[in-house]
Specification:
- It comes from Flagellimonas aurea.
- The chain is built from 18 helices and eight strands.
- The chain is mainly alpha-helical.
- The longest helix is centred in the first third of the chain and has 26 residues.
- The protein is globular.
Length: 558
Amino acid sequence: MKNILKINSKYIMVGATMALTVLGSCSKDFLEEVTYGEVAPDEMTKAENVEKAIISAYSVLNGQIDGASNAYNSPASNWSFGDVVSDDCYKGGGGTGDQSQIHQMELYNTTPTTYDVERKWMALYEGVKRTNEAMKLLNASEDFDATLKAQRTAELRFIRGHYYFELKKIYDQIPYIDETAETVSDYARSNTEFTSAEIWAKIEADFQAAYDALPSSQEEVGRPTNLAAMAYLAKTYLFQEKWQAAFDATTVVMGGSYELMDDFQSVFLPENDNGSEVLFAVQYSVNDGQGSNYNGSIGDRLTAPGGPYYSQYGFHRPSQNLVNAFKTDASGLPVNDNVDVTETDFVDPRLDITIGRPGIPYKDLNVIYEANWARDLATYGPFGPKKRILSANSPYHVTVWPYVDALNYYIIRYAEVLLWRAEAAVELGNLEEARSLVNQIRERAANSQYVQTLDGSSDAANYNIGTYDTAWTDATDAMEKVRLESRLELAMEGHRFFNLVRWGIAKEVIDDYLEVERTKRTHLTNAAFTLGKNEYWPIPQEYIDSVDEGLVTQNNGY
């Protein structure tokens, strides 16, 4: 049994609180007053009810906000927001008309009324609201243990920092509301009230406060630790190009007990998903009594790859470009020529752990992945997701609708911390440390269990991965190697697009990708990335229409 804090508990906000319902499913108003629960006002600040309010703040981490199965429009994993709009993935599904709004996202035709843009905004601000309300109840509680109160406050600041970090990287210039908000109108705020730097400073302050007060370990592993807060602070610095601060923060994290697991494939098993490599994760569970297993990976339920053991929803499909990125030379180093991989090519062993390829065994099912597993093969090609798909033999995999599982989504894992430090090291001129850090990642991949043929007699492909054994002397070349390693290690985990944007190379990379990829995948024929616009998503039109005229400024180009 996984020892977790169930983040999607049916515990809900207590009392008649004033709430932001950014997209009320049963209301035409973008902002409305909602009563959560039926607890009397004088009971709201009792310790047991405050704990329920805190659980409610955690519960939005999985992107589900209204008890429905459509969290795939606001997924915690960002498979649509971070992968489909990058060079790593296509939307997939039953053609371009299936979840057509996501198809428009991959063409860079997103608009302020795109449903997923609204749902993601709604989910994240619901998380902000619940966190703020829980903070107020906690502060007002007279019977809450004082020591535990400080810890819970730190947890809430960590969670709020996460929600705002997601909002900042997706929408950029956002309204910022803290626990001083009292009414619905307090949430109807301008998105230019604070500068970008001021918003980042507020996010930093939440993670710093969390680090200062959180313990080094938690009995309930779904709660953050102090080093998880420091890691998130490092990521916040990284997005602002505060290289020395990011480097120093990773020093603190690396001084703790987190470490790379020995085997790359084992990282993505539910029995290990709170292991030594995972600093913070969205906690999922199935068969726990929750209706429709909505505590499972509900935001990823469309990614089932098809075949004899899985539903053929067929979304989140790896691109040919991503497959090609795993090709290596005779020394095991990346080729990076975007020439299609053949059966005789050397490939990084992480390829067949990350991606389902025809002719390669799939998980431990004693079956070969075939091209006909892939839904709408003619449009999206033969490849399928694999890294974060559980074996159909796993007791943590649900074989009936809504086809979810209990593999946590990793918000931060230790391999990322090493790659962030390598990036900062290059920027600070320490190229050899960067090389050593990248080599740690590659050595782990090299020493991992490779995918085998069905009879177990040999490797399933020509796996060959080596380390960089020559000194790095050119900063530009070193940074390219760090960035490529980040792509290979973190593929299909929802990070790629956001990394391209913060590196300032989104336009260049996506243009090069589309130039070749549209010759293979005609659904991308009309895709075009606009510099200065498509780095961020638009502010939802329904939010703009629900606040005072002129209060909200739309993002550039929308």
